[in-house]
Amino acid sequence: MKIAVLSRNSHLYSTKRIMQAIQEAGHEGKVIDHSLCDLVIEQEGPSIIYKGEKLEGIDAIIPRIGASVTFYGTAVVRQFELIGTFSAVESQAIVRSRDKLRSLQILSREGLGMPKTAFTNFSKGGEKQLVERVGGAPLVIKLLEGTQGLGVVLAETKKAGQSVIEAFHGLKARIIVQEFIKEAKGADIRAFIVNNKVVGAMKRQGAEGEFRSNLHRGGKATVIKLTKEERTAALNAAKALGLSIAGVDMLQSARGPLILEVNSSPGLEGIEKATGINIAGKIIEFVEESVIKNSQKRKKFH
């Protein structure tokens, strides 16, 4: 089988591990930088040109699309889907999960637990109401475009919250305001999901005096056994957004697991090192099963 990993950096841990797992399973792997793909759309049908050559004969792609290139990256994934290549993560699901507001709206519709969240359209003088909407201070303010814990601010007082919201609004930056879950104590859980199964889970504890638990911000990861409720919440969140591969971030709260975010391109390094599980291998198994299933479906119709 010919499997392409869509990644802009072949030296990243996740990309290297997926390539390794492809080779270990006896397949041919190729890293394709999606930002260098040209998309040709014509009457004869869609095609993809990479470094001057038409891409053909690829059975499956594993998208590793960075947040900064979501628009173009998902256009490339969509083009592959149109020419009949299996994608481990659907283009539409990536788009859905990358829009923080949209994904929270979908999770809310499904009745999943989450911190109380408010959003506004730069309304002048609306800062006070926003703070009240999420239960007052302390509160968390997040840039809609932020990743890896960047653009996340904890406001300790109502006054500080109003000032930060005002500052972001002044810059015309889109933000969401969320209640602060004190009992989480600067820790969160990431459940890694492949093909409707939780294949690994870790608890990330923020560095001393830091409320963000991101490993990029100096957080530490340890293996954790999920409760039945946490497992169900993680699986339902990934399913609601249509993601076959996902990292679901949750907080442990007094009212049960609360979903913070669902990541469509979760890193493998933290989870593999914390759990000792070959997550990359699980991704390749899922790709193998799906490609076989798809080709059987096609034969049935021809």
Explain this structure to me?
The chain is of the alpha+beta class. Helices cover 35% and strands 27% of the residues. The protein is built from 9 helices and 16 strands. It has helices at residues 13-24, 70-82, 91-98, 100-109, 127-133, 158-170, 228-240, 269-275, 279-301, and strands at 2-6, 28-32, 37-40, 47-50, 53-54, 60-63, 86-87, 117-119, 139-143, 152-155, 175-179, 187-194, 197-205, 220-223, 245-253, 256-263. The strands form 4 sheets. The protein has a 5-stranded antiparallel beta sheet with strand order 14-13-12-15-16, with helices on both faces. A 4-stranded parallel beta sheet has the order 2-1-6-7, sandwiched between helices. Strands 8-11-9-10 form a 4-stranded antiparallel beta sheet, covered by helices on one side. Helix 2 (70-82) packs antiparallel against helix 3 and helix 5 (127-133) crosses helix 6. The radius of gyration is 20 Å and the shape is globular. The chain starts with a strand and ends with a helix. 40% of the residues are buried. The mean pLDDT is 91.
Keyphrases for this structure?
single chain; 302 residues; alpha+beta; four-stranded parallel β-sheet; 9 helices; 16 strands
